[in-house]
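Quick one: sequence plus NAP SMILES, need structure tokens.
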Amino acid sequence: MRVLVAGASGAIGARLVPQLIAAGHEVIGTFRSPASAERVRALGAEAVTLDLLDAPAVRKAVLEGQPDAIVHQATALKDLRFSRNFDRGFAQTNRLRTEGTDALLAAAREAGVRRFVAQSFASYRYAREGGPVKTEADRLDPNPLPSTRQSQAAMRYLDQAVTDAGGSALRYGGFYGAANDGLVEPVRKRQFPIVGDGGGISSFVHLDDAAAATVLALERDAAGIYNIVDDDPAPAREWLPVLANALGAKPPRRVPRWLARLVAGEAAVMIGTEARGASNAKAKRELGWELRYPSWRQGFVATYTATAPSDGGQPDRAARARHSQT
Ligand SMILES: NC(=O)c1ccc[n+]([C@@H]2O[C@H](COP(=O)([O-])OP(=O)(O)OC[C@H]3O[C@@H](n4cnc5c(N)ncnc54)[C@H](OP(=O)(O)O)[C@@H]3O)[C@@H](O)[C@H]2O)c1
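Reply:
Sure thing.
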């Protein structure tokens, strides 16, 4: 197949392109900033600069590229900074998930491209009721927190638009598997605490496993919603100390809910104490997906113990040794 990957230079795109090529596909890889061109070429793709918010340009790229399939992996999260206003940090990503999805779907329709897979998100979206782990059939949170409403609406929009068009929306877990993963610096600096009882559940997925599931969704012409998460949804009180240990950091701090609400806002309290995880049973059953890292328990260790901190130094082995003795 000839596959157009929008967002080929991103965290997931850069893992997906080589896996597609290894499986025998041809890839047109799009990116936004000129600096990403070389990266995309080095991955083995035809590199095309494209702003998904420029609908005529999207139409031109799809009509000229003549792909058999399109994968939408474009987000704008590189410079995401912690903010009490969740939606502010996601504003551009929300546009990529709504306007960008519309532009790609319209171009796909016009060019006769039937296979369409798009990036969605599983964690912190399901209704905060009932059991800790949710399937695709369970309902999404009917009352998202005010500071997250636009982001939740944009993800719902993408899920609906893509599946209405006969494509698949992959609700990925929290990505990890790279030295610069978003959680690395805050956990290293002890800025990511266990809130309250730390009972909020997270679902993670290693980037290589997420890319493998995406290749399968394309090849099997999957339609519908799929949770692409590992086998081990877990509360923050379990995964955070393991991540800190793998990074050679001190154990996470513990803070009461009222303090977290004051400092970090409602969304941080919800994620840390009430969020539900996701089940991958459907993706395994229908896509035949097998995970290299079935649990973050092995994945964090495999990723981060081999990773130097971003200041260029060696991991703090002394700190790690200290922690592992406690
Ligand atoms: N499920 C998850 O947990 C999840 C999901 C997404 C991201 N993240 C995390 O967020 C961090 C940043 O993600 P990232 O490295 O993928 O970077 P990113 O800034 O989110 O960019 C992703 C891709 O989208 C492209 N892009 C950005 N704006 C675009 C636009 N207007 N039109 C078309 N394409 C556009 C980027 O191109 P350029 O490279 O040229 O800018 C890149 O190829 C990473 O740590 C990642 O793991 C997590």
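The longest strand covers residues 115-121. The chain has 13 helices and 15 strands.
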